[in-house]
Amino acid sequence: MSTSEGASDRSDGRETAATDAEEADDTLDRVTDFYQAALPRSAPALEFLARLGLDEHALLTRFRLGVSDRTLGRAVPALAAAVARTGTSLRDALRREGLVRASGHEHFAGCIVVPLMDTDGRVRQCYGRRLAAPGHALRPTRALPGARLGIWNVAAVAESGDLVLCDDVIDALILWRLGQHRVLALLRPSEQTAMDALVALLRRGDVPRAQVAFAATAEGNLAATRLSAALAATGIAAVRVPLPRGFDVRTFARVHAPAVVSVGALLQGVLPVRRVVSPVAPSARPPEDANHTPDERAAHSHASASDIACDIACDIAGDIVRHLESLVANGFARSTIRTRQAQLARLAAVLAAEGVTRTEDVTAEGLERFRVALARGVSGDTREPSWSTQANLVTAVRMFCAWAVRTRRLTADPSVGLERPRLPRRLPRAVLSASEAERVLARPDPATPLGLRDRAIMEVLYSTGIRRMELIGLDLPDLDAERGVLFIREGKGRKDRLVPIGDRAIHWTHRYLDRTRPQLLRDHDPGAIFLGARGARMRPTRLTERLHGYVLGAGLGKSGSCHIFRHTMATLMHAGGADIRDLQEMLGHALLSTTQIYTHVSIARLKAVHTRTHPARFGR
To answer: Among 62, 443, 566, 574, which one carries the catalytic annotation?
Structure first.
């Protein structure tokens, strides 16, 4: 065989391999869509997810959860027609991928199915968990055979910061639902190849610390020890989440309600492993439900009082948890609860270093030392906290102490004299002129579906000045084109408001709704105005990335994303004569002083006065 023939054969082989890989990707993606479409029709699957607290629409659509209801075989002709393939070739592909066994039965029959996607959103592996009736333990997990991606939620590594690592996808989904969005799950934590892949993935990201939330069992502890050592060798600090003996995240969240408080406190280090609040007496038999395996029930029933303590009413860690519970009962937002957890964990760390472990022993002098320590950074900070961070921490301490007085844990409030630092008055970092704003708005290509969507998004942000999460939360009924207003549901501070929207923004939004939104829709309509590429409500980080690219691409020498349109709108409207109180209402500011920064940004009037009156002006 000649050299050219050999090269041709190798080329043909590579092309065949690439074609097979593309077909495999397409097969997994199509089957994932099929399972996802079957979920709303399966009452047992929805009930199973509801018991786990995983029935939130945002979670189901973002991670494409589905169910295998044993109807895949009957749907092969329709699926094959959708991808222009024969039924026989598609059945062969299903067998190659392991989705259908040689016997003809579905591999994930009767399972909740969670796809594992790579950073490009392509399905590379699937996780299955058999449905379990109430009172029965969860069944063992299933996965597709072969060497495949074994990490769930790899997209979380794209953002900098700490990560939580789980040894089960269900545990990771529960943490995501509770607000811990930087969470990964390892499909086969006991396998060295899976662990090596995880370490390699974390090394490519900006991950200073990993919290290992593996089950507190013999197998989980062994895998956590090996993983921690492997991460430490690469310079990534690893800490073990102190779950009680025999517990995993799922069980802990079930037993220690409300989970948003107890799990958050556990991750923040407020609750040490031997001081866990438990409503179940140590000698009592735990409830027989789907979230307890036989091993967990046995471990729980044999736990000693030192493992699960109930008598920590006066312990400062327990009081912090009860204070957080009161915030939940009073309707504070979930994001506020998470922030308070982190802030009071810092307080507990500083006081514990001084030997103060009981709320009744907290003094004004100790709190003042805590405030001073903030300026240097505490609890492992690598940089000094900002003035606003310090001020918010003082506010959290004041609220905790006031609660302790009301609940008679303290006889007097030691935080009365604790002063908040004076905050510097800072102007927005970047504001666009009217011509610069038009250059940015012209960056997306409206001839493409996502370009038209992005143009409509920027037009809405520029016209209304709403916040990023307010835009993502917009539903179809919230746009009243006839009146020219947007209805903002539960904006910052959980307040509703009406915001004017201009005709041009309405025009671009209607173009997007007519042309692009129907193309983005999948089987389920989330009701949101602006959809992501997969038909779900847009992700905040993805929206920021896209708009940041348009601002940089305009070549203005300025950086910004969603908020730059808010600053620009307010500044230009004030320069055009808008009253500051009208701007306050449109922007949804609680305090007029917040809105008044735009009187300083809008310098046109001062410039005119300076030019007209300064004695050194040109020409004199």
So the answer is: 566
Q: Taking residues 424-450, what's their average pLDDT?
A: 86
* Strand (E) or helix (H) holding 165: strand 163-166
Catalytic residue flag (residue 563): yes
Chain CA centroid to CA 609, Å? 48
pTM value is 0.53
Give the tens place of pLDDT for each residue, 105-159.
899 999 999 999 887 788 889 999 998 776 566 777 888 887 777 899 998 888 7
Q: List phi, psi (to 5°) of 523.
A: -70, -30
Rounded-to-5 percentages of helix, strand, coil across the chain: 50, 10, 40
87-96 vs 3-38: helix crossing angle, rounded to 10: 90
**Which two structure tokens, joined as six digits, stand for 14?**
């590579």
CB-neighbour burial class of residue 126 (10 A; exposed 0-12, middle 13-18, buried 19+) = buried
Active-site residue, selected from the candidate residues 130, 188, 492, 548: 492
Select which of 467, 468, 546, 567 is catalytic. 467
Q: Rounded CA gap, 319 and 328, in Å?
A: 14
Does residue 524 have an active-site annotation?
no
Burial 85-103 (b: 16+ CB within 10 A, else e): beeeebbebbeebbbbeee
566 among known catalytic residues: yes
Tell me whether residue 467 is one of the annotated catalytic residues.
yes
